[in-house]
Amino acid sequence: MKIVVDAFGGDNAPLEIVEGAVQAIQKNKDLEIILCGKTDKIKEILNGRDERIEIVDAQEIVENSDHPTEAIRKKRDSSLVRAYDVLKEREDVVGLVSAGSTGAILAGAIMKIGRIKGISRPALAPILPTKLDNDVLMVDSGANVDCKPINLLHFALMGSAYYSIIYNKENPRVALLSNGSEEGKGNELVKETYPLLHNAPINFIGNKEGGDYMSGEVDVMVADGFAGNALLKGSEGAVNAVLSVLKKSIKSHFSSKIGYMFMKKTFNELKQRIDVQGRHAGSPLLGCKKLVVKNHGSCNRINICASIEQTIKLHEKHLIAEIENSLVKLNLAEGE
Amino acid sequence: MKIVVDAFGGDNAPLEIVEGAVQAIQKNKDLEIILCGKTDKIKEILNGRDERIEIVDAQEIVENSDHPTEAIRKKRDSSLVRAYDVLKEREDVVGLVSAGSTGAILAGAIMKIGRIKGISRPALAPILPTKLDNDVLMVDSGANVDCKPINLLHFALMGSAYYSIIYNKENPRVALLSNGSEEGKGNELVKETYPLLHNAPINFIGNKEGGDYMSGEVDVMVADGFAGNALLKGSEGAVNAVLSVLKKSIKSHFSSKIGYMFMKKTFNELKQRIDVQGRHAGSPLLGCKKLVVKNHGSCNRINICASIEQTIKLHEKHLIAEIENSLVKLNLAEGE
User: Fold this and answer.
1) At what angle do helices A39-46 and A15-27 cross, to 10 degrees?
2) I need a surface site. Which of A102, A130, A229, B90 has the fewest CB within 10 A?
3) Contact A294/A282 with Cβ under 8 angstroms?
4) Contact B187 A266 (CB under 8 A)
5) For residues A180 and A211, is the Cβ–Cβ distance under 8 A?
6) Of the candidates B209, B243, B269, which has its C-beta nearest A233's C-beta?
């Protein structure tokens, strides 16, 4: 199986990206990787470890400050655009992994690869931990900040298919983000979307509030990308805020420092529960004709390796076919 | 000074509400309170402590399940509607405190009291702690789920005036919730609102993401009520999720239990930082002609007392006049 990796996207590129690719190659005997970026730098890091690794040279880099569609159009010799060219032109390349600019990854996916037929908008679907042992998916987390009900319906179908695959869970619980759990609550978009989700071939459990996001009661939270982004980042920020207050207080009391040593197990468990990036490094761009997995800009080699393996799994479990199937089921349900 | 209190709104009514009113009376020598609700029950709780307390009888109760505007129209003998009647009809009554249904409190404010001239929509403005020593205000938190740019402009003016008063801070930092901090990021609503806030007589610090909400860098976060609600409740939920994971883990490890005893100081500090309800029990409904302060449904006597004192402070510091002033300044700025 072949996967293309943007070796020059992300804060820790190219070192961590290339090392992550090497790890993935070592762990997966049938994997081949195409690294896009400056050949000499990549070779320097590889230092001979080039088994099943091909390099496609690209001299430019897409920056976070670049305008996304402009960058895809004009930076033709960038590592991201070259990676998209490889994904587009080579049939045997099944997916792309990048830790570069979210906007540019999204623009590239739409401009170079295109949407699955019937899907109105691709969506970004990152995962957050909950207070229980499960994780929760947010779809959309910011790729689409102005949405119509049909977009949210497609987010729900795609999110459900994706969650099923990565957690091996049939009929994950899909909720619609609202400002109250009762039917009839919500803004105009939510009110119009509710009946669509209710009639869709998914396990729709109704409206849920932002406070339910990390409760463990929801598997897939569907939202327009603006509110979804606010909820996702707000939750992350709140977790960080609590940890920051704890840290500061522990440092300022001698007894707390001692207590902290006794509580190492507990803080490690918390850290593990929170570290969703370790479990699912990447967020897929759901709805594209080929697999595109976006990494956090700050990711390291472990995350990159995890994202490559996630791409393998999504390919082997036929994510794209599953999404197409759910569209067929939807059409059948609507035709009834 | 006279304040009217809905004695039968909230999960712990009437006991906690009446006791909270008694506390406020004991602490504030110039305060008079009008309690609305079932006279016999209120008298039973007061048990003779009726100095500077008047009772206005009301036999009905507005439930959370009632349709808000219907409830205001039809439940004329409810504690909430009677309280609004008192607020409306008696000039010397300066504010209303209720822990009842948010929707009904909002509907009553609009139908019975009316908006400040020039304010397009009243807004709910609750407070959350940050990881630093300051608190952050969210306006709007769910009263208005479909907004126009002019609404957000008014939220910003009102939030700024309110924050200034309760924290005694001039020119609080007002941010606009978006999915990226750069100008130009955001949905259509945010893009259209940005220049309005930029030109308004406030300390506008630009777009901020959901993750910045509890960072301590923002005093007033302006958002449409849908995204604002998602962010506010998501942040609260995330804090609870972290505490829940910690609690569970502490219980399951002996060493952590010991550690917890040493860390009591730190957990108390965290609790105190988080307990914003203790500091600011109520959320004012900004933009009404008279002061309306809404309490959390689960509030206790301490919170009710704090809300009554908050209402006193907002009256003494002329919140409504301050909002009117900022509208005048806005018009002057626009006329330039």
Assistant:
1) 50
2) B90
3) yes
4) no
5) no
6) B209
Smallest CA–CA distance from A265 into chain B, residue: B256
Alpha-carbon distance of B205 to B202, in angstroms, equals 9
Q: Dihedrals φ, ψ of A177, to 5°? A: -65, 125
C-alpha span between B283 and B139 (Å, rounded)? 10
Could you say which of A146, A209, A258 has the minimum Cβ distance to residue B188?
A146
Among chain B residues, the shortest Cα distance to A102 is held by B180
Min CA distance, A257 vs chain B (Å)? Answer: 8
Structure tokens at A287: 């709805």
Continuous H helices in chain A:
15-27, 39-46, 68-74, 79-89, 102-108, 149-167, 188-198, 225-252, 254-262, 264-274, 276-279, 301-316, 319-335
CB contact under 8 A, B231 and A236: no
Amino acid at B312: I
What is the pLDDT at residue B61? Answer: 97
DSSP state of B213: T
Q: Do A130 and B241 touch (CB under 8 A)?
A: yes
The per-residue pLDDT for B279 is 67
DSSP-assigned states of every residue in A96-133: EEE-S-HHHHHHHIIIII-BPTT-S--EE--EEE-SSS
Contacts of B255 in chain A (CB under 8 A): 262-265
Contact B280, B260 (CB under 8 A): no
| Dist. CA B179–CA B210, nearest whole Å | 7
Strand (E) or helix (H) holding A59 = none
**Beta-bridge partners for B284:** B293
Q: Are the beta carbons of B259 and A255 separated by less than 8 Å?
A: no
Spacing of C-alpha A277 from chain mean position: 10
**pLDDT tens by residue, A217-240:** 999 999 999 999 999 999 999 999
Residues of chain A in contact with residue B177, where contact means CB-CB under 8 angstroms, are 230
Answer yes or no: pTM beyond 0.90. yes
Average pLDDT of span B18-45: 98
Which residue from A minimizes the CA distance to B248? A266
Q: How far is CA A85 from CA A77, A94, A286, in A?
A: 10, 13, 19
ipTM: 0.91
Which of B280, B272, B294, B284 minimizes the C-alpha distance to B315? B284
* CA distance to partner chain A, nearest, from residue B187 (Å): 5
B267 vs A130: CA distance, rounded Å: 21
Do B165 and B319 contact (CB within 8 A), yes or no? yes
Torsion of CA B99, B105, B106, B110, to 10 degrees: -150
Cβ within 8 Å, pair A273-B225: no
Of A209, A233, A264, the CB nearest to B210: A233
> Could you report the per-residue pLDDT of B181-235, keeping only the tens digit for each?
888 889 999 999 999 999 999 999 999 999 999 999 999 999 999 999 999 999 9
Instruction: State which amino acid sits at residue B54.
Output: E
The alpha carbon of residue B225 is apart from the nearest alpha carbon of chain A, in Å, by 8
